[in-house]
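Give me structure tokens for this 139-residue protein.
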Amino acid sequence: MSLSIRNQLAGTVTTITPGEVMATVKVSLTGGQDLTAAITLEAAQELGLAAGSAVRALVKSTEVSLATAPVEGLSIRNQLPGTVRDIATGGAMASVKVAVEGGDLTAVITRDAVTELALASGTPVVALIKSTEVALGTP
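Here you go.
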């Protein structure tokens, strides 16, 4: 299956914490970062997820926010450090490619945000992704 989701990061499940309806799944990405996904318990079971399972973390580019430094006091579980590799701007929006350990992420943010954050190629950033916005797929 081909997908329009730009962000597809390979990793391995390290832990699963089941709840009544949802489960949190911790994934160690190939670049060494940890990522948390909040998925339905049913999906975790149907995918046969267990510690050691190979997965792909999928995140739509519109669900990736950028900061110029790590953010404390925030409920967002996933903060991946990286460096801006490229920026393509349009009239109102911009697509920002970020190099992270083990791969690339794309964030679609407003053109105003690019300007206000003074983003340019080489700028260090932190990609922020809510755990509920991470989908998991198996090979």
